[in-house]
User: Fold these one by one.
Assistant:
Number 1:
Amino acid sequence: MTHKMAALSVDPDVDVSEMDRTDPLRHLRASFDLPADTIYLCGNSLGPLPGNVGARLADVVQRQWGESLIRSWNAHSWFAMPERLGARLATLIGAQAHEVTVADSTSVNLFKAACCARGLRPQRRRIVTETGNFPTDAYVLQGLAQLLGPGTEYLAVERDRILDAVDADTAVLVLTHVHYKDCAMFDMAEVTRRAQARGALVVWDLSHSVGAVCVDLNACNADFAVGCTYKYLNGGPGAPAFIFAAERHHAAMNPGLVGWWGHEQPFDFAEGYSPAAGMRRTLSGTGPILGFATLDAALDIFDGVDMAAVRAKSLRLSSLFLDLVAEKCAGFGLRAITARDNPQRGSHVALAHADGFAIMQALIRRNVIGDFRAPDVMRFGLTPLYLRYRDVWDAVEALSQVLRHGEWKSAELGRRARVT
Ligand SMILES: Cc1ncc(COP(=O)(O)O)c(C=O)c1O
């Protein structure tokens, strides 16, 4: 198959082989163990296996755990991993090294961040978020509001009315920076500025941003942020998440879910809780050392990588994808819900189709792996570290064939497993 796009009206001069040859990030693909003959468009959900993880895990398991045993907490600095990994991650999100820790899941960290923010605005009742935010965000905030009782109220508002809803009674606005379905991206600086002007604090969920788009939390004067590391950071299934708090909030913040790892002197085994200074107080219990080690190895890939180049390639990949879909897949009932002309988008593309689930299954059968989000959204993650422009070409070619030949119409492909 040729990848020359001479037949296309979108841009007859574009040659994907040439785009790959001149891609400044092309060397990074070799950092991953990608299965042959597979086009992996699901890095926005679970990043692929970095090539260095196996050896790193073997070392931590056999040499550190196996030989050093419990001495590893000191000898291999296991106890400091939440802060050490936080410092590494800080460089990717515009934070200071001491403003980020890595621990727990995104859901748990969101609870802690929202609790910190709510506690810093005791006179205000409301926690505001976007209708259609990722469900865990909504559930965690509903749970927190319930726990805090009648003095706290949860309110979900449509995207275009969000800022109108932030009023004198709003304690905290919780938003996902890049939407998990349509991939639309908030203007973090502007939203933060306007919410803070009304006296509210803002918590950003960066799950679909970190490692994919440029994030500068301190330049945006962000208050709190959380995010997961198993998507664009390739930290592995169930990888520990991160939490950011601006330094100005450290002394007064209370994450609510506290535990001995966040105590100022955990090995005093004191009866009463006394929080550690700074971000250490966001920790609760023993961290997943094997998960930390996997993430540590995965972050090596980002060393020296220019996020502006990642961002530029991401937009180029998604523009190419959308142009090719418009060209090759017209007339089959697909609807692009990620806006081609809006650069305020993250790093995946969402297409809607009434039979989206079965179409995605047919694509996966062809080793083009994306995912599906109910009720009708197919998502294609376009991850600049390991995808080539010709992968985009081949993926859309496969999609057009699935549609043209009605490959998705078998009953078997419509059956849903527990995870879609
Ligand atoms: C915006 C957002 N927040 C949170 C999560 C997941 O949270 P957790 O890792 O706690 O399951 C996801 C997962 O896709 C997500 O898209």
Number 2:
Amino acid sequence: MSNILIMGAGGFGTALAVMSRKFGHKITMWSPFPEEVEMLCRDREHKKLLAGIPIPADVEITTSLEALGGAELVILAVPSAAVRSTAATLAKSVPERIPVACVSKGLEAGTYKILSDVMEEELPRNPIVMISGPSHAEEVARGYPTTVVAASRSRAAAETVQDLLMNETFRIYVSDDVVGVEYGGALKNIIALAAGILDGLGSGDNTKAALMTRGIAEIARLGVAMGAKAETFAGLSGIGDLIVTCASMHSRNRRCGILIGEGVEPAEAVARIGMTVEGYPCTKVAYELARQQKIYMPIVEQAYHVLYEGKDIAAATKDLMERPKRHESETIWLLTR
Ligand SMILES: NC(=O)c1ccc[n+]([C@@H]2O[C@H](COP(=O)([O-])OP(=O)(O)OC[C@H]3O[C@@H](n4cnc5c(N)ncnc54)[C@H](O)[C@@H]3O)[C@@H](O)[C@H]2O)c1
């Protein structure tokens, strides 16, 4: 039994808490919001996001970081936009060398940094591990068999996460390709939004398969240019996560896209989902980064025009279909425009 501190008491933080408690760990859940802590302590259930799944009485839920002293592992489960500030809060009291894992998926707005780089800046004395893969909170909490990757520049830290969190319902593979794991996890949310748009429009299966397949191709193109290994995009954090988010009603990105496909304005659709729709900010960051790096990302480009500039979806689809002819497998001389 180990002491684990989970920072972020939303859908995934709660799911990880319930699962890890079931497999014998002592769990503390932290949230910066007193009203959220009060609600969870009162209901012992996340009624909005994980209804019907009890949070065991001995899972401590708090706004204080006092429990940190005994923690052997800290896990950040906050929206990607809150990773830097949460890591900075943690840095004030976390003992050095305690591994800090993170399940958030996104790129930092403005700097275009992957979240492990953000965390390393704020927590330079702690090894960082990124956990990613097809892992909806609703299913992790219910014990459905789930597989993820724990990626780190420190093999020992990745294996600590594997040792502590892996159980009969949650299988963890380790990887040293942090960059690949992060680009796959962050950018698949854009494709999931677009897949939802297609579903909202009532498009065909061919179109969705095309979006997913060409989507992972351009995610890999950017990822490889940023230092990732190409094969990572064929793994759990790449195609695995893309499949689950584009197909599942648990995906908030896909549900947001469905609303947009049905005619709701993008910003209004994001507000209606009312939870972290990571694909929306990520579309803007990826669009800007791709332009800066001169990487060809036609789907991200059209998603940006639709989501941020009000471009008609039919016109975006037509522009994608009528582009100049290309090879399916682009070689290096085709990577840039
Ligand atoms: N929900 C899932 O199935 C799932 C699965 C894998 C990864 N993720 C990723 O995990 C991250 C968290 O997702 P979630 O579904 O738990 O989100 P959520 O919106 O349900 O919960 C996030 C929690 O983070 C905390 N938080 C919110 N804003 C904060 C702030 N400004 N500062 C500090 N803490 C703050 C709160 O406790 C909040 O409940 C996201 O990046 C998401 O992409 C989610």
Number 3:
Amino acid sequence: MKAVAISEFGPPENLRVVELPTPVPGPGEILVRVEAAGVNRPDILQRLGHYPPPPGVSDLPGLEVAGTIASVGPDVERWHEGDTVCALVAGGGYAEYCIVPAPQALPLPRGLRPGEAAAIPETYFTVWTNLFQRGRLSEGESVLIHGGSSGIGTTAIQLARAFGATAYATAGSDAKCGACERLGAHAINYKRSDFVEVVQEATNGKGVDVVLDIIGGDYLQRNIDCLAMHGRLLQIGLLGSARAEVNLRPIMTKRLTITGSTLRTRTVEEKGAIARELEARVWPLLASRQIRPIIHQTLSFSDAPEAHRLLESGAAIGKVVLVP
Ligand SMILES: NC(=O)c1ccc[n+]([C@@H]2O[C@H](COP(=O)([O-])OP(=O)(O)OC[C@H]3O[C@@H](n4cnc5c(N)ncnc54)[C@H](OP(=O)(O)O)[C@@H]3O)[C@@H](O)[C@H]2O)c1
């Protein structure tokens, strides 16, 4: 099969199209003939050598795919050859064939093509488990989403709005702010305004109930300053820095919760549980087109270096997708 491999850790041009043996699904696994694979910021970290796949997982990049099931391993009940699915994987997505643990696959949302559905799993699993399971965001509450125009951000804005929350989103340009507004957020151009001031003014000094952060570093104190009583801060990325110095007092006085998580190293059972909740609560919203994956551009496997450059440049609004 054709696949995109990381020849050695380094720049985007180290992504090379190679020929590899087609993998064979083991017990509890399915083999998907990939029609499209989503590109995510963690793929860039992996290419740079900062985000290795968990033990036993393909070292090819790619955390999500959509396509048709080519074969089914032993002990798989739900899926059959010929079913169309999209799936979360811990690696191996940039390939014509990809092994998927059966519980991590979902049917294609009704009406969506594989080229659209491939852009869903990584950000929807991440946002669902953080914003709603850990962060307990609920109807009538408010959330501040950093990187509102990112793959994660465009997903978080739509899900927050669909479940009845008010969304504030930061972004670094007017074009990105416009995209966030069209998805239903109150956008804040963080290069022109102080997001803490904007949030405090917009909420009459109350603050937001939840902050979803991908930056870290000096955003930590500012995120704490944005939170309302009983607020929750969800740390899911560190694009700024992993280190920060904070005044702990407001965590006590406002009774805040600071948490975070990574998705890739969770067990198949945990990911399967998230998949079932998504299928029940979010798939109907995708089928009715109330929410949708936001795709900036679709490129071929041979253009994988360009796909990474595009994401790294910060020019993308939403997701980049690769097709074999
Ligand atoms: N914990 C998890 O389970 C999990 C899972 C998936 C992704 N993530 C993390 O979530 C974050 C977003 O991922 P994504 O795939 O949605 O990313 P993406 O689409 O590439 O978007 C990243 C955006 O972040 C903003 N940004 C702000 N400061 C930045 C900096 N120093 N370097 C680069 N970008 C910066 C940029 O928008 P502006 O121009 O508006 O600043 C950029 O467009 C990443 O940190 C990723 O590692 C975490």
Number 4:
Amino acid sequence: MGTENPSRPNYALRPATNPLSAPPSTTPFLSSGPVIRSEASAFRPAPPTPSQFPTPPFSSGPLVGSEAPGFRPQPSVRPSELVRPPPLTQSSYGPPTTGFQRFPTPPLPSADHMQHPRSLLSGPPVVTPPTRPQGGSVSSQASSYSQPQPPSISMGSPPQNIKTGQIISNVPPSIDRPFSPSRQNIQPISPPMGPSQATARGTFQPAFPGYVSSQPYSSAQVPSVRPAPFQSQPGGYTPPAPPATFLAQPRGYMPGPPVTTSSVPYSRDQMQLPGMAPPIPSQGLVEDFSSLSLGSVPGSFDSGLDVKALPRPLDGDVEQKSVAEMYPMNCGPRVLRLTTGGIPNSQSLASRWHLGLGAIVCPLAESPLGDEVPIVNFGTTGIIRCRRCRTYVNPYVAFTDHGRKWRCNICSLLNDVPGEYFAHVDANGRRVDLDQRPELTKGSVEFIAPAEYMVRPPMPPLYFFLIDVSISAVQSGMLEVVAQTIKSCLDNLPGSPRTQIGFLTYDSTLHFYNMKANLDDIFVPLPDDLLVNLSESRTVVEAFLDSLPSMFQENMNVESAFGPALKAAFMVMSQLGGKLIIFQNTLPSLGVGRLRLRGDDIRVYGTDKEHSLRVPEDPFYKQMAAEFTKYQVAVNVYAFSGKYTDIASLGTLAKYTGGQVYYYPCFLSAIHKDKLRHELTRDLTRETAWESVMRIRCGKGVRFTSFHGNFMLRSTDLLALPAVDCDKAYAAQLSLEETLLTTQTVYFQVALLYTSSSGERRIRVHTAAAPVVADLGEMYRLADTGAIVSLLSRLAIEKTLSNKLEDARNSVRLRIVKAFREYRNLYAVQHRLVGRMIYPESLKFLPLYGLALSKSTPLRGGYADAQLDERCEAGYTIMALPVKKLLKLLYPTLLRIDDFLVNSSAPADDFDISKRLPLTSESLDTRGVYIFDDGFRLVIWFGRSASPEIARGLLGEDFGADFSKVSLSQRDNEMSRKLMKIFQKCRESDPSYYQLCHLVRQGEQPREGYFLLSNLVEDQAGGASGYADWFMQLHRQVQQNA
Ligand SMILES: [Zn+2]
């Protein structure tokens, strides 16, 4: 998406009708009649068709009645333009009207509040255009309405950009202003974790403020800090030397003052290392590269290549450790990984690096227990930042002038130390208060942001649900599972008691629900009744969710007015922002945003038009996504249909709003409910950072120039992220701005400014340093395969949106070939190895990951090799995956379990899930039973000659049944209990998705092929190479022009 100018009040596309300020007569809070297809106004009503609108059971209600002015059918609509749902009889239509009268307390907004608004209409069906008809997009009558303010954008710019005092009054009174003066003096302290606390924290990000229990506050003096944990360890780690020693000089490295005390952990020589790029030991070459004999005849296929000796990542992801060892104060690799830890010192050197120079950033990655991100409150001092480049104070700044000044490590400016922040420095330039200053010793900290970091009161967590209730949604059981799951999560939605919630359902019409618990004046409809405070309306919300499935039990409607529903949701949410969670079961068929079947034309594949199937056809979705982002709405899309749903279009909503796409093709409650339940639960209950923006700063001479993932750019380098959580990662590419870098070290700083669920503005800051190197070999030595694969995956998927799949695959292969050729040339003199493939040790798994990427769902094969929707969904998903999760998807875990299951002496929880097997059918013994786990699903494969005892133990009488209809559950025997323990381990190792288990028999096609064989990436399959062939091809191509 295009860049937006942050200084421009970019709300020109303000909807003409503001749902919260407009008079009731113009609200959209009515069920619309049959919606007009693709005309300018989605909400234009159809002429009355009495048969479609059975006599309403009530003649009045809290919602706008038909007497409201302005609800006139537009005469210009010709009947031929209308698409009407099939006529429905009263008996088959809508919920039983008595359904809500059963609700006891509190006095529900009587049944009618939650009733189909359709039923409330006594006159002609009337609808309100929520927007002026303007080409299908939200219309642009801007100025006369009060506008939601953009989030603070002060991260990148000095506070003068912030319109302080311009607080909009659109936030419900229930929301506390979190930054009362006294609050600023509260010192958050995270006490050392006790064991009980540790357990209770479970999988949530402990440092998040949304979980009040995990962030106990107590009064203390400003500034508050949490003791850096490593300093309490006697005899353990000593705080690193002050960065002053190698930072004090504006131009590059200069040795600091003579170091005499023995307490300094580094000798001067060692301290030079970061800046000087650690020397390669003379024997380094031997250690740093690997080679594989490919036979005496180079290029020959089957002579000499020992397939078993090919490198395989059976230990999973291995992080690059060298840079972290050089700079122990760097933030952890969970947060930031560079494709190479060696930053090239010149553009010419950078041009010889073919694997993408950049970083993968996961700003809210979960911290391991005991290593939580410390929270720092500068209180009235204000956050210490560089006056010029706005870098946050960090472990690599240098204090000089007896502690009165500090030098910025990013731009070298000498800043004054504010009086309140002053501390003496010792002979080594170390501040004496270092052990109370996590921001000066830890690579990751979180600052409490004062009022100037907000332009409106921090928003409350808000969840708005847009639920398809057409026939397939009901019959698949989706509606019931969704309603039950949302209800079960109500206690755990972050941000209580401020959390807001609302619902809208749709088929051919839209149905709004008034959730207000107490309606004193029920005849005056309030638009904001559609969004309520959860704790105030809890009973109503629960009652609604209980009755939602039965309300539509008899619904025969097959249509989907998705686009109009989306626009209505936008109007409801635009005042506050929040998370919009969409459950879509069919192809949107009515109104604006209506989509058509495409993608079934095999002739398009392999042509220049192929990519167009993978991008949205109708600009409506991209425009809506842009609007959502502006108003701080993140969109998550859950899609369920087995038929074409155009995920390419729907997913756009998630892509540009920092959201996520979940896909359950052919959803059937009986089979898929556990997966949906778990994933929806995580989505709703994981801690979330709201209305956030992220920027990555880096030192002079380098600049991040492109970003890849699910977000929208607000300016050249400011990522708008309406919602972020620990499961989202972003890639960024780095360029050298200057021909030659004169510094010895490059610093990076990721800053995420966000609103916590508890309503505080906070800034999560991660800082890292990396050495500048003058040698390509050093870049290879410090390469990080996981980061490279993550970046290349994103680039390749982006390429499929404008090119053929084949082109995207070729681009991956070409990069690997170029990189290995460059490497070979580097050592051509020393190693004239004939018939050997030479590659850097650090990149030994790159060929296999490259092959796996080419075979992954977004890139594999052609028309027949993946359903279009599946392909698009996988693309959207991978764009957001953190490194470890992606590597596991590309090279999944294969485990043999039959020995363990039958071994009666092995304890049930004793199974080691790290004993992974090569992903080839040669690993499969017909007598064995195996588990395949790619992080998204589990597959159990039963060999043809596997012991029947195992099958009986695990499946009982179901063993002979059709496996597509069998779901595995725990049985009362040791074997079954053991298997469930293994499942549990696999699932707990990464809870971001839930792996549903699929059973497969050897030889049972197409099931075995689909679930397992096509995912054994080392095997030759279809037109794609096996690992050995691929390796040989790379080798031959590396040799060409070598
Ligand atoms: Zn600076």
